[in-house]
């Protein structure tokens, strides 16, 4: 068996094209969706992510604003910057790129974001709304997983989905979305993590496996149920000789791709799978925020 490759980049490109078309229509009404970014410190990965998101804004016609601050930025200075984004009428949504430097109180910073502009869906208000089934933004990576499956004709309804990883960013909100009584949900969800005894026994029962534990090539093909679908959320850098890759590293997922391909019926690659979908969903949330502010939708 050779698994079908689920092309997240192609799907995300399609979504971005749809967003660009809708943005062009909004601009005829004098509305340009605005997305803001706050970047503190000089973490290379964070700088790359913010740059990619900025380019995505350009592609779909959004206004974007990036505020960079040095590592030594104080809590009070950062809270003041967040408040300025909260009241900026040109910004419909914004995010604080994580992780923040260790001396900053991440929880307090996130809680200071206006929920109507919380396009990452990190504030307690939006997390609570999601959990209780109320209308809210959908967290970007979990939403990306749901949308990628939908557009790839993968229906989780009635399926057993095993999620490996219980983070507040992916695992736990994704479990909520997949178990909802609505389209893209109605799955039976098992949430595994680092303290789960014998994860393999759960993986072998799974119709759909979502790997989001942050450990390179943690799941191997011999742990999977034949014909299952594998959604790999992990992005890990593995050092390799420069003769293999001039960067000195390669990117791998949380699933050992080569062995999983022999067992699964479909699988997402890393890179090019879930990653592009996360940015697409961020843009979609920003578009929703702009339409809500304009009174076009509730």
Top-tier CATH class of the largest domain? Alpha Beta
Q: Do you know the CATH topology of the largest domain?
A: Rossmann fold
Count of folded domains: 2
Give the strand order of the largest sheet, numbering strands 1, 2, ... along the chain: 1-11-8-7-5-6
* N-to-C CA distance: 47 Å
Largest sheet: 6 strands, parallel
Corresponding CATH superfamily of the largest domain: NAD(P)-binding Rossmann-like Domain
In terms of structural class, how would the helical and strand content be classed? alpha/beta
CATH architecture of the largest domain: 3-Layer(aba) Sandwich
Tally the beta strands: 11
Q: What are the low-pLDDT stretches, counting only 5+ consecutive residues below 50?
A: none
The ordered H/E elements are EHEHEHEHHHEHEHEEEEHEH
Count up the helices: 10
Whole-angstrom Rg: 19 Å
Q: Helix proportion of residues, in percent? A: 25-40%
**Which geometry do the CA atoms define?**
globular
What average pLDDT do the residues reach?
Answer: 95
Residue fraction in strands? 15-25%
Explained architecture:
This protein is of the alpha/beta class. The chain contains 10 helices and 11 strands. The strands form 3 sheets. Strands 1-11-8-7-5-6 form a 6-stranded parallel beta sheet. A 3-stranded parallel beta sheet has the order 3-2-4, with helices on both faces.
Descriptive labels:
single chain; Rossmann fold; 6-stranded parallel beta sheet; 3-stranded parallel beta sheet
């Amino acid at each position: 068996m050779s698994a079908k490759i689920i092309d997240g980049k192609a799907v995300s490109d399609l979504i971005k094209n749809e967003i660009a078309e809708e943005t062009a229509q909004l601009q005829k009404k004098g509305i340009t969706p605005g997305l803001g970014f706050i970047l503190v410190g000089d973490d290379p990965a964070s700088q790359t992510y913010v740059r990619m998101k900025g380019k995505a804004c350009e592609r779909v016609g959004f206004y974007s604003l990036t505020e960079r601050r040095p590592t030594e930025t104080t809590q009070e200075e950062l809270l003041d910057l967040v408040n300025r984004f909260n009241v900026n009428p040109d910004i419909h949504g914004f995010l604080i790129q994580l992780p923040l430097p260790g001396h900053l109180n991440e929880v307090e910073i996130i809680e200071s974001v206006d929920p109507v502009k919380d396009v990452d869906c990190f504030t307690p208000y939006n997390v609570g709304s999601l959990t209780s089934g109320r209308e809210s933004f959908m967290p970007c990576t979990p939403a990306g997983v749901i949308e990628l499956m939908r557009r790839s004709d993968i229906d989780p309804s009635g399926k057993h989905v095993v999620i490996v990883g219980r983070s507040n960013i992916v695992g736990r909100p994704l479990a909520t979305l997949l178990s909802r009584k609505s389209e893209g949900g109605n799955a039976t969800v098992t949430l595994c993590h680092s303290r789960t005894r014998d994860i393999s026994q759960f993986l072998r029962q799974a119709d759909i496996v979502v790997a989001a534990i942050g450990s390179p090539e943690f799941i191997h093909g011999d742990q999977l149920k034949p014909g299952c679908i594998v959604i790999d959320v992990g992005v890990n850098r593995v050092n390799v000789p420069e003769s293999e890759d001039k960067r000195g590293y390669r990117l791998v997922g949380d699933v050992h791709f080569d062995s999983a391909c022999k067992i699964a019926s479909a699988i997402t690659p890393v890179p090019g799978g879930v990653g592009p979908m996360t940015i697409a969903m961020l843009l979609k949330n920003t578009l929703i925020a702009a339409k809500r502010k304009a009174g076009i939708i509730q």
